[in-house]
Amino acid sequence: MLKLATRTATALALLFAAPAVSAQTADYRARLPQDEVIYFLLPDRFENGDTANDRGGLTGGPLVTGFDPTAKGFYHGGDLKGLTRRLDYIQSLGATALWVGPIFKNKPVQGGPGRQSAGYHGYWITDFTQVDPHLGTNDDFAALVAAAHARGMKVYMDIIINHTADVIQYRECQAKRECPYRSRADYPYQRRLGITGKPINPGFAGDDVRTPENFARLTDPAYAYTPFVPAAEKAVKLPAWLNDVTLYHNRGDTTYRNESSTMGDFVGLDDLMTENPKVVAGMIDIFGGWIDRFGIDGFRIDTARHVNPEFWTEFVPAMQARAKAKDIPNFHIFGEVSDHEVRPAVLAQHTIVDKLPAVLDFSFRQAVVETVAGTRGTDAFEALFDGDALYAKGFDTAVQLPTFTGNHDDGRFSTFVRKAFPQASDAEVMARVMLSNAMLLTLRGVPTIYSGDEQGFVSDGNDQDAREDMFASKVAVYNDNRLLGTNTTNATAHFGQDNPLFRQTAALAKLRLATPALTRGRQQLRAREETPGLLAISRFDPDSGAEVLLAFNTATTPLTRQVEVGIGATGATTLSGSGCGAVAAPGSLTITLPPLGYAVCALKATQ
Fold first, then answer.
1. 423 CB contacts (<8 Å, ≥6 apart)?
2. pLDDT for 535 beyond 70
């Protein structure tokens, strides 16, 4: 029988013995991306600061306004004013940067009869220049950024370039739910609706000739389907150039593979022709404008892998130049490259071919899921960190990758634990989640905490099921969830600081920010196993070279092992967790870990 509850209490006591955080850099702009702890949230699901904007200024029922706080797929009322009022809560957790889900004006409701849902998540944009009225105003966003900056916190915007809201329709698909992708080979740009169709777009040399003169010859969009825009939506998109149907691929639904990955409609959303110089210039103008007006600190780029690489090689330098002109030296840009295997090469290629400065580290997330919410050996982390060499600048890029264990798309880590170990007690589930937190907040990368994880939220699944409200929810399928570390449900607001997961996260974030080895330090693998058990990694202070040993036990049995450390180590101080023992011989430290335990050990060395 695992004594997990006792171990958890002991670990928490030790966590709060961590040293105090050193004073924050006077100029928060000077912090590097890896110096941050990111907190990610969807504004609609965080806090309602103004009930007057719940319906976005629209009149009617949920299918018009998008507002239905009882339905998981509709607006619930959260907004930017509410978020601004809760900055103290976020900062008390230890977060130094906010990743705010998309705030742009969205199409309120999409979907055919019986399949409607709302744009509460922010990914169905019609107006790229304004805040969605459900979330507030541009002035509200300016106030949020100013308030965050006054606290020394950064603000990262979630942006979308791959697509807009679903406005363009295809005459051939009006009676169907799906519109299969039609390739360039079978439906070339120079023929109407297929290779046997009449000639169109004379002189167009193909989409790989990316000059304004060439794309000016692409005037007829009816090469794969016959696109049209309903009369009521002909001018719905802003800036106005987005209403030009010829600036979209119009080839039907993506299969997420091969050619369709960058040219197909993502879940029916209008896929922009990002090969066209007019689109490139337009997007640079749009998002450069947000930097100019609000002085934000970075972009998370949605669906980055579904845009042609050449676009990013122009867009990223343009954004970095706009940021530099605003005296923002460490503007953090990271793309979403969704992948669900421990395959760093898949992610790394986008830092080389696309020249993205960073990507979300899905491989890190998968390694933690397979080992802590699964039974894979800790050698998964060897494969993960060996892959750091593949990134554009090797470890210097890897250390800037935002790491995470769960999110709004893939689901919460706690849910994976419950599904993998359905017979596990709540104490064991809690221990596994705490172990994942310890990995997230001590290993290389930029730890990214998903709103609600610190409050013990456990979702039913992914996507809409993992987007619970932080304020008191009215959604039945959220309110019947069994949370961790609390007897409350999602029917009550969760902004307290007494949940063990909140306290652990805050303490580990505090320790991380006070320990340069954990933010900027290089890593060295010390031990791993091909079955559940020990993972040991050393990190080194970039200035002094002082060693911090991280030890994790993914097994449900205790372990005592000798772990190699620097030859000059004379002893160890436990900074977090428990199990840092004595130096048994030069270069060998004794580690004793409880089941699912961890230890952060600061090594003492001879002078």
1. none
2. yes
354: DSSP letter: S
pLDDT-wise least confident of 144-153, 176-185, 273-282, 593-602: 176-185
Does the pLDDT of residue 248 top 70, yes or no? yes
Dig out the tokens for 489 from the structure. 């449900």
At residue 607 the predicted structure's pLDDT band, cuts being 50, 70 and 90, is low
Please list, in sequence order, all residues whose beta carbon lies within 8 angstroms of the beta carbon of residue 13, skipping any fewer than 6 positions away.
Answer: none
Q: Catalytic annotation on 244? A: no
Q: Do residues 448 and 40 lie in contact, with contact meaning Cβ atoms separated by under 8 Å? A: yes
- Contact between 438 and 552 (Cβ < 8 Å): yes
Q: How is residue 445 written in tokens?
A: 């990368």
Which among 79, 207, 271, 302 is annotated as catalytic? 302
Q: What is the Cα–Cα distance from 110 to 108, expressed in whole angstroms? A: 7
Task: Show the CA angle centred on residue 506, arms to residues 334 and 546, nearest 5°.
Answer: 75
Q: Pick from 49, 42, 112, 20: which is nearest to 511 by CA?
A: 20
> What is the distance between the alpha carbons of residues 469 and 149, in angstroms, rounded to a whole number?
25
Residue 336 appears among annotated catalytic residues: yes
Q: Which domains does the chain have, with CATH numbers?
A: 38-160 (3.20.20.80), 422-514 (no CATH), 521-605 (2.60.40.1180)
C-alpha to C-alpha distance for 492 and 473, rounded to whole angstroms: 7
Q: Are 122 and 158 in contact (CB under 8 A)?
A: yes
- Please tell me which residue in 47, 207, 265, 336 is annotated as part of the active site: 336
Six-digit token pair at 510? Answer: 């505090």
List 580's β-bridge partners, or say none: 591
State the residue for tokens 């200024």.
57
Q: What's the CA gap between 298 and 115, in Å, rounded?
A: 34
| DSSP codes of every residue in 229-290 | --GGGTT-SBSGGGG-GGGB----B--SSTTHHHHSBGGG--BB-TTSHHHHHHHHHHHHHH
Q: In 3D, which of 61, 447, 127, 109 has the Cα closest to residue 290?
A: 127
Residues 6+ apart with CB under 8 A from 91: 151, 153
Contact 223, 209 (CB under 8 A): no
10 Å CB burial of residue 215 (0-12, 13-18, 19+) is: buried
**Helix/strand/coil (H/E/C) assignment for every residue in 110-151:** ECCCCCCEECCCCCCEEEEEEECCCCCCHHHHHHHHHHHHHC
Q: Tell me: pLDDT of 47 over 70.
A: yes
Would you say 242 and 233 are in contact if contact means Cβ atoms under 8 Å apart? no
- Residues sharing a CB contact under 8 Å with residue 516, sequence separation 6 or more, in sequence order: 541, 542, 543
In a 3-state reduction of DSSP, which class is residue 538?
strand
Transcribe 313-328 into DSSP letters: HHHHHHHHHHHHHTT-
51 burial via Cβ count (<10 Å: 0-12, 13-18, 19+): exposed
Would you tell me how many other CB atoms lie within 10 Å of the CB of residue 606?
7
